[in-house]
Design goal:
This protein starts with a strand and ends in a 13-residue tail after the last helix. Helix content is 34%, strand content 25%. The protein has helices spanning 23-33, 43-61, 108-112, 153-165, 203-207, 213-223, 227-232, 235-243, 264-274, 276-286, 304-312; strands at 3-9, 14-21, 67-74, 79-86, 91-98, 119-126, 136-141, 169-175, 180-187, 248-250, 257-258, 289-292, 299-302. The protein contains eleven helices and 13 strands. The protein folds into two domains: 3-258, Hsp33 domain (3-Layer(bab) Sandwich), CATH 3.55.30; 264-312, Alpha-Beta Complex (CBS domain Like), CATH 3.90.1280. By secondary structure, the chain is an alpha+beta fold. The chain binds zinc ion. Residues 260, 262, 293, 295-296, 298 line the site of zinc ion (ZN).
Length: 325
């Protein structure tokens, strides 16, 4: 079963969380594998997506926010888009669109940042939006400050969290065909300070960056965690190996799981967003509008009668962007 464990270091301004996605991750892979239109992702793409899923769960669990946390890579390379979306209850879904070949030892920059133009976006989409409210979005490049290549997603996200929250963060991520896992260690914000939107960050907090000895010691221990250890060992063993000299206070574990938020109603809204003319032309050409969910593979079919209903239904809601499902 997939698990997320949160903990704090007793008496120290440091918190942590560790996630191990097993069934939640293999469910995502299995749906892709069984999709005749696409087939399985190349291994390096699956690894990247697994790391995104693990990171998304860690980041979602780290904030007090009722809505979806969406981690997206807009790639410049064969991976055009990769998305991991984690809801407040830690249900998650993920997908990637690959165009062209990804070779078996492709690194991050080969897949998503060929011309140094790839981007990573972190979006917080509130569950209950007031009219006109836009989701919060932060965007970071996939290269370093001096345009040097970065080959680890964890580095990109550490950089993002340092910028947006003004908090030192250490992230270790790993994924293979069975497990997607991650460890996050973060210096605790002072009371009422530091959040993902960065709106409450104080100067005092900023001045602490890199200087807290307790955090620095624990971060070095965390960074020593190897990929194989993270993938193969259970949570108790990992925490004991890394932090046996520290005093951890652990919270009740939570259970992330795969779930897709797609529905026939959402697809209908998307078709409405296309406009009647576009919908009619698809119907004329193919006899029906056939939309497959990129995340779970569910197929939604609308014939001419269904489509007519979409455009005449009295509860027709304002159109949404055709890219949102
Ligand atoms: Zn779906």
């Amino acid at each position: 079963m997939s698990e997320l464990h949160k903990f704090i270091f007793d008496g120290l301004p440091v918190r942590g969380s560790i996630v191990r996605l097993t069934d939640a991750w293999t469910d995502i892979l299995a749906r892709r594998d069984s999709n005749d239109n696409t087939g399985a992702w190349p291994a390096p793409v699956a690894e990247l997506l697994g790391e995104m899923a693990a990171a998304g769960v860690l980041m979602q669990s780290n904030i007090k926010f009722n809505g979806a946390l969406i981690l997206q890579i807009f790639g410049h390379g064969p991976v055009k888009v990769a998305v991991a979306e984690v809801q407040h209850d830690l249900s998650l879904r993920a997908t990637a669109t690959v165009v062209g070949e990804v070779n078996g030892n492709a690194r991050l920059s080969d897949m998503v940042n060929l011309g140094n133009k790839g981007r990573c976006a972190i979006t917080l989409d509130p569950k209950d939006k007031f009219p006109g409210q836009q989701p919060y979005q932060g965007v970071v490049p996939l290269h370093g400050d001096h345009r040097e290549k970065i080959e680890k997603l964890s580095e990109v996200l550490e950089h993002y969290m340092l910028q947006s929250e003004q908090l030192d963060t250490t992230l270790v991520l790993a994924a293979d065909g069975k497990v997607a896992a991650g460890l996050l260690i973060q210096r605790l914000p002072m009371q009422g300070e530091g959040n993902l939107a960065g709106s409450l960050v104080s100067k005092a907090n900023e001045d602490e960056i890199g200087l807290n000895e307790d955090y620095n010691r624990i971060a070095i221990l965390a960074a020593s965690l190897k990929r194989e250890e993270l993938l193969e060992l259970d949570v108790d063993t990992i925490l004991h190996r890394l932090f046996w000299e520290e005093k951890l206070l652990r919270f009740e574990p939570q259970t992330p799981r795969f779930a897709c938020t797609c529905s026939r109603e959402r697809v209908a809204r998307m078709i409405r967003g296309l406009g009647q003319e576009e919908a009619d032309s698809i119907l004329a050409e193919r006899g029906e509008i056939d939309v497959g969910c990129e995340f779970c593979g569910q197929q939604y079919r609308f014939d001419a009668v269904d489509a007519a209903q979409i455009f005449t239904s009295p509860d027709a809601q304002p159109p949404v962007s055709p890219t949102v499902q």
